[in-house]
Design goal:
single chain; alpha/beta; Rossmann fold; UDP-galactose 4-epimerase, domain 1; 6-stranded parallel beta sheet; 14 strands
Amino acid sequence: MEKILVIGSAGQIGSELVVSLRKIYGNENVVASDLRTDEIGKLSANGPYEILDITNRADLEQVVDKYGINAIINMAAILSAVGEKFPMKAWDVNMNGLINVLEVSRDRKIERVLVPSSIAAFGPETPKDNTPQETILRPTTMYGVTKVAGELLCNYFVEKLDVDVRGLRYPGIISNETLPGGGTTDYAVEIYYEAIKNKKYTCFVSSDTRLPMMYMPDCLKATIDLFQADFGKLKHHSDFNVGAMSFSVEELAASIKKYIPEFEIDYKPDYRQMIAESWPRSVDDSLARKEWGWEPEFDLDAMTRDMLKVVGEKHEKGLI
């Protein structure tokens, strides 16, 4: 029986991932955990929730032992924009926390570990279009540095210490449920909320900024598909590119204007513009498609229709 611990469950992806996993494996078999307390009610309503600091190995061991955990998904991370303001905190959480997860997994003989990476692992010297999985990794953010180091560390645990670790590089993730938490691609979520509420948005990157993006249902699908993949069939492990769509902010705004013609956008790029310019415009995810059957379901227009529908309903109910 699977006993899965999801670390970082209160985050944008983690909060929805827990719900999806509980539908598959049963409420009691998926333990949500985070340092944050604001999501306790939501995540403990139908399953266990633990307050957990990933940088505290003893606390992690206690939770693993308490529930008989045999699989871990580590979603805990300080993201790019926040990481530039607090670089040493980003290193502590993203690297020292990861080391704790990997060491506890080795010592407790955890059967599977999934650790997401990000397109932030790429840098200015990386090819921008159709970026290959194996390429130059020279990021310019602390978040990116931790993701490159994390990928290498996870692969080391696979190759030298015989731990089942797998991971995928998330593009920008767009959700209609949870607001983003300090990433450079936050604009791609904020724009929908502002379009519904105020019919206008001021974007913190320029109109021609183009980045790989993914709608949350595809993000959850990719994560769970890789989590469930046959490890013996994986030739790569901790650095899978996954893609769904790539678009500029201008194209995103045009997609929204199809359904809200009065929507207006202007641009005031800030420090996040330089971060965005260091990342790919699109990625080559052929290895993920080949090795574990990755296939996205949403394109830009399908995502926009669904986002506006869901966010609009929330606005009508006074929830946003």
